[in-house]
């Protein structure tokens, strides 16, 4: 049911990412004219995360380009923006929250608290210069460190690690990737496609080491030493990119249902949590997906947008489910990729690659992940006309020859 805009209690959004910024935009553009507030613990208005590891590190634009809206937009659209104001508690029974020592009421509450970088104690306790990449300040510090001739070790060969490696090489940084799995992105892409990403980075001068075991990390003052499979790798600094952890502390403390396996706040397909009047969107939402037939938590840009649109529609009085298939993209060197779908916990039993693959530019190809003859995910590399076809095929049962 749409909130009564004549009531004094606002719709409150907790979070400072793309999901929060998109939600308030959709509400105002959808005609909601009642009170609206955003609380974020960061000093900036809501902003997108992808530019932190893409455009900004590549000097393609300032970090301000990542803002969903400039700060003035919020006042102009009567959105009460509270920056540097962490919410410390929520009380769903009384529709209240506490922030900066003050308690305020809400009519509806949307949790968009996102994720935080997963830390590696071995690195944090080493005394070395360690970088993580999750927030505005992280990107500023990392960009300042990417100087020509410097040496960077990246622990973790996931999307963040590979994108930073690509940016670092563009600045003349010597890069070594240390990945414990058999290939970077192995769990997501499987042997054949993951090996293509490893080859791409090696072709651009990155020392990609897979299946490694890190024995120790220590600072020597001027440099950092990493013990890798009995060998010492000496660098100037480290980037740790070993994933993210959904920030569900507020939800847990308030007694909302949190899924132990995914770590996300459980919601139905409309993004409603177990508490009346409380919604969860973006990274933290482990949402029932009516198309995939299971609950799903996704940490990607497009999901944040789609979740925000769905909740905005529901708050405006429209009965809307989250039906969009998961989607993400990456840019590395001259390779651009878009991926649709999600194999889920059951994974895939077949990978089909069609087209030309190549070391230096990634080639141009499509890849399909299947389970029991059903396409559970699809991806293109440098084939920008393919994405609509991929979307139409994911979820269907196909004859492999037809791919």
Quick synopsis:
This protein has 403 residues and is of the alpha/beta class.
Describe the structure in your own words.
By secondary structure, this protein is α/β, with parallel strands linked by helices. It has helices spanning 18-29, 50-53, 71-76, 121-124, 136-145, 159-170, 186-203, 249-253, 301-315, 387-393; strands at 11-14, 36-39, 79-82, 87-91, 96-99, 102-105, 108-111, 115-117, 130-131, 151-155, 174-179, 207-210, 214-219, 224-228, 231-235, 237-240, 244-246, 265-267, 278-280, 285-289, 294-296, 327-332, 335-341, 350-356, 364-371, 374-381. The strands form seven sheets. It has a five-stranded parallel β-sheet with strand order 3-2-1-7-19. A five-stranded parallel β-sheet has the order 9-16-10-11-12, with helices on one face. The chain has a five-stranded antiparallel β-sheet with strand order 22-23-26-25-24, sandwiched between helices. Strand 1, helix 1 (18-29) and strand 2 (36-39) form a beta-alpha-beta unit. Helix 1 packs parallel to helix 9 (301-315). Residues 1-6 have low confidence and may be disordered. Its cofactor is FAD. It holds the Pfam family Pyr_redox_2. Residues 11-308 form the FAD/NAD(P)-binding domain. Residues 327-394 form the Reductase C-terminal domain.
């Amino acid at each position: 049911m749409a909130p009564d805009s004549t009531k004094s209690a606002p719709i409150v959004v907790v979070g400072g990412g793309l999901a929060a910024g998109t939600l308030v935009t959709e509400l105002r553009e959808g005609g909601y004219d009642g009170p609206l507030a955003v609380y974020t613990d960061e000093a900036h208005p809501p902003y997108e995360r992808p530019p932190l590891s893409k455009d900004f590190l590549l000097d393609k634009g300032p970090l301000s380009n990542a803002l969903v809206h400039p700060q003035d937009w919020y006042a102009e659209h009567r959105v009460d923006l509270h920056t540097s104001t962490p919410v410390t508690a929520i009380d769903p029974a009384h529709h209240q929250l506490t922030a900066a020592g003050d308690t305020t009421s809400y009519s509806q509450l949307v949790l968009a608290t996102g994720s935080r970088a997963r830390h590696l104690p071995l690195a944090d306790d080493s005394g070395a210069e360690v970088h993580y990449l999750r927030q505005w300040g992280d990107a500023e510090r990392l960009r300042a460190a990417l100087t020509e001739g410097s040496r960077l070790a990246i622990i973790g060969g996931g999307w963040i690690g590979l994108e930073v490696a690509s940016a670092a090489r563009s600045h003349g940084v010597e890069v070594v990737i240390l990945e414990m799995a058999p290939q970077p992105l192995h769990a997501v892409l499987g042997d054949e496609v993951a090996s293509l990403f490893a080859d791409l980075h090696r072709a651009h001068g990155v020392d990609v080491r897979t299946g490694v075991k890190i024995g120790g990390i220590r600072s020597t003052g001027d440099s950092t030493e990493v013990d890798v499979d009995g060998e010492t790798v000496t660098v100037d600094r480290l980037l740790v990119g070993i994933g993210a952890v959904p920030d569900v502390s507020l939800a847990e403390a308030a007694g909302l249902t949190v899924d132990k396996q995914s770590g996300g706040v459980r919601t139905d397909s409309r993004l409603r949590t177990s508490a009346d009047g409380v919604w969860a969107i973006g990274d933290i939402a482990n949402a029932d997906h009516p198309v995939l037939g299971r609950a799903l938590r996704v940490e990607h840009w497009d999901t944040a947008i789609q979740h925000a649109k769905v909740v905005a529609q529901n708050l405006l009085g429209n009965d809307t489910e989250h039906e969009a298939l998961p989607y993400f993209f990456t840019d590395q060197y001259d390779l651009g990729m878009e991926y649709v779908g999600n194999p889920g916990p059951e994974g895939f039993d077949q990978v089909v690659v069609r087209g030309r693959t190549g070391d230096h530019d990634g080639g141009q190809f499509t890849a399909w992940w299947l389970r029991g003859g059903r396409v559970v995910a699809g991806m293109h590399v440098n084939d920008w006309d393919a994405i609509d076809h991929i979307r139409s095929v994911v979820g269907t049962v196909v004859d492999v020859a037809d791919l």
